[in-house]
Write a structure and sequence with these properties.
This protein has 242 residues and is an alpha/beta fold. It has a domain of 157 residues: P-loop containing nucleotide triphosphate hydrolases (Rossmann fold, 3-Layer(aba) Sandwich). Helix content is 32%, strand content 25%. The chain has eight helices and nine strands. It has a nine-stranded mixed β-sheet with strand order 3-2-4-5-1-6-7-8-9, with helices on both faces.
């Protein structure tokens, strides 16, 4: 296997990953509402364009392209500038009754743009199309992953996960299709919450096994690589006090 890695460009994350993702990886970024999943995906696309000149495609299911541009602007990213340079493309695929949804259309745009980074936000798109047809659902997700890999794309897929307690993680059969899984958590600290990140699995890299706190501020996500989550400090110390 090549030593080459795809750097995410997200501050602190590449250190946690042991350098980055392996090329053509498929990464599931999962968490509950407000955990930072969409910001993670958008930052992966923006930093690819800004730092490495890599074209990226962001597929939005639940938001409009204007919504994505607005959220980006709040974080200090002028997405329109990258779009003008053909480095970022936003595709709307709303899961609404009567809307036209086409995975083949996404594949065609990725190929035409020569994209090297793709984010699907979110996996709801496949759930909407194939519902409870578990076998078909897995087959079509796998077909999409293989198509992205054939174009040399590193793929990030966003998904909701309702059981996000660090000791209460449940997995679906679709989880095992992906090269890697990154779990984003909101852990309670008394009357507040702390955002944390854990790499559940990541093939081909020597990644951290720790739970890492992270912050969201202008510029996006910053992973605090040397810090311990305050929410877990008591558990690690066995709840004892001096």
């Amino acid at each position: 296997m090549s030593d080459e890695v795809v750097k995410t460009g997200i501050k602190g994350l590449d250190e946690v990953l042991g350098g980055g993702f392996i090329p053509k990886a498929s990464i599931l970024v999962s968490g509950g509402p407000g955990s930072g999943k969409s910001i993670f995906g958008l930052q992966f696309i923006i930093e690819g364009a800004r730092q490495y000149g890599e074209a990226g495609v962001y597929v939005t299911v639940e938001e409009t392209a204007d919504d994505i541009r607005f959220y980006g602007k709040r974080l200090g990213w002028n997405i329109a500038d990258f779009e003008a340079k053909n480095l970022v493309t936003i595709i709307e695929q709303p899961v609404q009754e009567g809307s036209l949804i086409s995975i083949d259309y996404i594949v065609r745009i990725v190929r035409e743009k020569n994209a090297k980074r793709v984010v699907l936000d979110s996996l709801t798109l496949f759930n909407y199309m194939y519902g409870q047809q578990t076998t078909t659902l897995k087959t079509e997700i796998l077909r999409f992953i293989k198509a992205m890999s054939s174009f040399g794309v590193t793929l990030v897929v966003i998904s909701e996960r309702h059981s996000t307690g660090i000791d209460d993680i449940t997995f679906t059969s679709e989880d095992f299709i992906f090269t890697g899984i990154i779990l984003l958590l909101k852990l309670r600290i008394q009357a507040s919450y702390e955002r944390c990140l854990s790499v559940i699995k990541m093939r081909g890299v020597n990644h951290s096994l720790r739970v890492h706190p992270f912050k969201i501020s202008p510029g996006g996500i910053l992973v605090l690589t040397d810090a311990k989550p305050f929410a877990l400090t008591g558990a690690e110390d066995g709840g004892q006090s001096g």
